[in-house]
Amino acid sequence: MYNHQLVYCAVLIGIFGAVAKAMSPRWHYLWQRFVHGLSALARRKTLSWVGLGTLVLVARAALLPVWPIPRPFIYDEFSYILQADTFAHGRLANPAHPLWQFFESAYILQQPTYASRFPPAQGLVMAIGQVIFGHPWFGVWLSAGLLAAVLCWALQGWLPPGWALFGAFIGLNLCLFSYWMDSYWGGAVTAIGGALVTGAWVRITRANRWVYAWLFGIGAVIVVLARPFEGLLLLVPALIALGMANRTARVWLPIVLTGIAGASWLAYDNYRVTGHPLRLPYREYYQQYEIVPPFSFMPISTAPRTFGHFDLESRNRETYERSRSWRLFVDRPLDWLTLLRYYYGNLIWLLPLAAFTPFLWRSRRTRFAAILAAVAAAASLIEVWWYPHYGAPFTAALLILAAQSMRYLRQWKYGGQEVGRFLVSAMPVAVLLVMVASQARAIATHRTADLVQAKNSQKESAEQELLERQPGQHVIFVRYTGPSPHDEWVYNPADLDAAPVIWAHDMGQIENERLRRYYAGRSFWLFTPDESMSLRHY
């Protein structure tokens, strides 16, 4: 799909070039007036970033009749939804269920509390959407719109206004049409924190505007509460460079105060979930259920694991072994290519980025952004997995580099012709046309990424159908014959006992009787997703 989009853009640019040669001077004049109008808009900085964020929110909301709220299907998503539901109920964790073995699910703790294994930032934003609008996706929606605005604001600190708006346009697809908007997997919240750090850093170090230290601190807290490891990869070099540029108390006091508040919040969240302020839920989950570590330099655990409903670790072990072999140098560049496909929306932006990388590194304007990108690339070599949202703290830095490479391209001349100036005008138009056309086609054919899902995306529909057919309270025993964790159905809300439909693992006739006695008065059903998608009385 992305290769096709690159080809389509190249073809359109060729067509634009042929048309431009045949156009009358009047059309060239009109185009220049349009460009000048965009430049005038970009100089109104607040209007630019507020307008861009509003555009993303309004556009996605307007598409809801034809492109509805996405349904979760990846186990990460169900874990975040549980976390959001927990927060929406005013709790950081839920009491462990006395029969918790029936409800074990991927990436969800059952002991010592019933909670998500993830840090709290994504769940908090989703909880806001659930409380205000009645559904956690609206928290995702708000975060994607806010990301578009904050990215534009961050780039305004690094680049002239027109180029900042240009860079924000490159990230438009990420905010509007990627899984950061249309799933519950996360990405936008972390990127907001990273953009605040990146945008505040440049304003403090180059313009000596110390008031932005508060935004730096807030961004630092967000990235740590969203993705602690990758967040620190951004913060450590940013703090070192900030310390070299400015050591005054008026800069560091706000950062220290917000840092203490954020660390206290994380410690308290850890304590409520795991019972220890320094023990992350991620670590607790790993020790209970996983043997493959997140980093390739760590050994595979030999301690016994308790999860027995399906095999979580075979595929993880294979990925781990690849990350410790020469295959890493094939896999990781492909992972980065996938990441850049999402961040830039179209691979055509990689061409000037690759061509002008030496200039980006030597330029004082962009050297620190290039260093951040290099840090992220180096750190990705020690991680077993590398998904696009892992690099979210560095989103603003990557867009800065892309926009600056287009500035260099604009100066390129060939045979006395201002080829670069033409390409800088033609490329965004071509990308916009291809982006809108491809997404419109996906929506019309129901082939958007969030609709091409595993069977368990039908879980909510199955519940609704059961409640319409037989009102009351139910328990559904799920019996697998050979499931993948991607086909898991046993996910429940935070207030498990009050749920109208409870999903539980089939643990055999004798064990199941314990659950039947616990939920006396409910109807019981058996569901075998590997054989059929129908319910039958149990």
Would you give an account of this structure?
The protein is mainly alpha-helical and 538 residues long. The protein has two domains: 2-71 and 120-444, no CATH class; 75-116 and 454-537, no CATH class. It contains 22 helices and seven strands. It has helices at residues 2-22, 25-43, 45-62, 75-88, 121-133, 137-158, 161-170, 172-177, 188-207, 213-226, 228-245, 249-274, 281-289, 313-323, 328-344, 350-355, 357-362, 367-380, 395-410, 419-444, 459-469, 509-518, and strands at residues 94-95, 108-109, 113-116, 474-478, 501-505, 523-527, 535-537. The strands form two sheets. It has a four-stranded mixed beta sheet, with no helix packed on it. A hairpin with a 7-residue loop joins strand 6 and strand 7. Helix 1 packs across helix 20. The mean pLDDT is 91.
Oligomer: single chain
The beta-strand count equals: 7
Largest sheet: 4 strands, mixed
Strand content: under 5%
Cα shape: globular
What order do the helices and strands follow? HHHHEEEHHHHHHHHHHHHHHHHHEEHEE
Write the layout of secondary structure elements.
Blueprint: H1 2-22, H2 25-43, H3 45-62, H4 75-88, E1 94-95, E2 108-109, E3 113-116, H5 121-133, H6 137-158, H7 161-170, H8 172-177, H9 188-207, H10 213-226, H11 228-245, H12 249-274, H13 281-289, H14 313-323, H15 328-344, H16 350-355, H17 357-362, H18 367-380, H19 395-410, H20 419-444, H21 459-469, E4 474-478, E5 501-505, H22 509-518, E6 523-527, E7 535-537
Parallel strand pairs: 4-5, 4-6
Antiparallel strand pairs: 1-3, 2-3, 6-7
